[in-house]
């Protein structure tokens, strides 16, 4: 176990060198540069010095909520390594199952193209679309299914947003997202294998999908931040950082809006897209819905307590409804 823990701590330390991690140094530096420029434009004459002070506001980074983000990042990684990582689904059996199912249903399909540029472009795009849509769909379900919402509330209880807030989640939610990734990649690889054959590869930058790399370089870490960067008309197609901040808003009119990660088209299809406005004033967290997610123990246990309370409430309501229904005296009325 000691070796496992040391390995996990080593991987956490190497996250800044891994382009598949949101904490990759390039993504953080890109977000910092964009954050300075956007905030400096908002500060006007006070310029870059005021922007830097605003970006590194101690009231945000040292807030009780932010400190919980940091703690959950470390503890969730250890919980994953010790408990659920060995049992999570993997992509390979799903990909093989999808490919075999397609061949059984439609017969052998010779490669539709042997042009490497076409194959690589198509596979890169398919991976990106499957990943982005399944993220949207699971996120939508986390809000719409009461059982899942109790776990997702841990993420939404953040009262300030920092790039570390993306790791503020309950282990149950983390397990579901890891399973989602295996399913998404399995479907993408299985379908691509059926249509393009074994010569599959993607456009990558330092080992990361080129489209994902570009999205992360263009300020994805500002989604969880206090930098209000809006994209104007592009927000009908892509989710801007400010649009995701709207998703975290305590304003009831923003509840269940902007579920998307990169593409806004899914929200448009589901009727949940909200376009940002200039000078929006947002407060983050659950507001009056928050019954306490202030430390690691509460973040881990509160969902189970809420589920238990909800179940007891439903049981009590059902029992009271049954007892309040008019009874029938079968002996006097001869009801058969």
UniProtKB/TrEMBL annotation:
Residue intervals of the Fatty acid hydroxylase domain: 125-272
Localization: Membrane
Superkingdom per UniProt: Bacteria
Transmembrane regions: 24-45, 81-98, 118-138
Classification via InterPro entries: Fatty_acid_hydroxylase (IPR006694), Sterol_Desaturase_Related (IPR050307)
Keyword Membrane: yes
Keyword annotations of the record: Membrane, Transmembrane, Transmembrane helix
PANTHER family: STEROL DESATURASE
Protein name in the entry: Sterol desaturase family protein
Organism: Salinimonas profundi
Organism phylogeny: Bacteria, Pseudomonadati, Pseudomonadota, Gammaproteobacteria, Alteromonadales
